[in-house]
Amino acid sequence: MNAALPLEARLGGTRAGAVREEFLGNSAYFPLANLLFEWLREGWHAFVRSPDPYALLATGAVQAWFAGGWKHAGRPRPFLGNLIGPAFYTAVEGALEGARFLEAPHHLAYWGFAIAIGAAQEARLRAAGRRARIAATLAENVLRAAIIVVMYAIFEALSNPRNATPAGFFADASHVYVTAALLALGLVIGAAQVTADGHLALLRSTAAQLRRYSELAMGRADHEAQREERRGDVDVARVGEEAGGRGVARVRERLED
C-alpha cells in the first residue's frame, strides 16, 4: 500500500483487500465445506470431472466481490451479501440438476447458514450498544463454526442411516466431542475478532483525532503567517511615509536657502 496515502485511507484498505478479506473470512467457508463433502461422497475422479468444484469456487468469489466491494465503498449490506452465494450456486447447479438440487440437505443448509450468518452480521452493523455488537460477533463466529458440525452430521446421516436423527448422531461420544470442540473454537475466534475490531476502531479514532489536530495547527500557522504579512505591509508603508516626509523637508530647506 502506498505510504503517501493518509493514515485513515491506509487503515481503510483497498477494494482488492476488502474482497480478499471477505472471501477468506466469510464467503469461502460454506463452499469449501461443501466442496469437501461432495468430493468424499462422489470420489475424486468423478468430482473433478463434474462442474461442482468450479461452481463452488466461483460461488465464494462472486459473493466476496460484491460483499467486499460494498463494504469498502462504505455501503455494507451483509444480509443481502450473504445471500449472493447460495443464490448463485442454486442458479448454476439448479440449472444442471433440476428440482432434485433442492432435495439435497446440504444445499438447503447453505441457504440456512447464509440467512443466519447474514442476520448476525446485519445485527452487528446496526447494533447501537457495544454489548449487542459483541453478542452478534460471537454468534456469527459460532454459526460459522457450526457449518462443519452440520455438514458432518449430514454426511454421517447419508452414510449411516442410524445417524439420520440428532439423537442418533449425538449417541456417539466422538460426535459430541467434535461438536463441542468446534463450537468452542468458534467462540474463541469470535472473542479474538472482538479484540481486533476494538483495536482497529481505536486506531481509526486516533487517526481522526490526529487529522483534526493537524488541521487546527495548520490553521493557526496560516493565521500567524497572515498576521506577519499584514504587519510587514504596515511597516513598509510606514517606512515609505517617513522617507517621503524627509524628502519633502529637504526640498523645502533648499528652496528657503
**Biggest sheet character:** none
Shape: elongated
Helix/strand-derived category reads mainly alpha
Distance between the termini: 81 Å
What is the mean pLDDT?
84
Q: What share of residues is helical?
A: over 70%
Helix-strand pattern, N to C?
HHHHHHHHHH
Q: Write down how many β-strands occur, each being a DSSP E stretch of 2 or more residues.
A: 0
Number of domains: 1
Architecture overview:
The structure is a single chain. The radius of gyration is 33 Å and the shape is elongated. The protein is 86% helix and 0% strand. α3 (29-42) packs antiparallel against α5 (52-72), α5 (52-72) runs antiparallel to α6 (78-97) and α6 (78-97) packs antiparallel against α7. It has one domain. It is built from ten helices and no strands. With 257 residues, it is an all-alpha fold.
The gist of it:
The chain is mainly alpha-helical and 257 residues long. It has helices at 7-12, 15-27, 29-42, 44-49, 52-72, 78-97, 105-126, 130-159, 166-170, 173-256.
Task: Using brief descriptors, characterize the structure shown.
single chain; 86% helix; mainly alpha; 10 helices; 257 residues
Q: What does the secondary structure layout of this molecule look like, with pairings?
A:
Elements: H1 7-12, H2 15-27, H3 29-42, H4 44-49, H5 52-72, H6 78-97, H7 105-126, H8 130-159, H9 166-170, H10 173-256
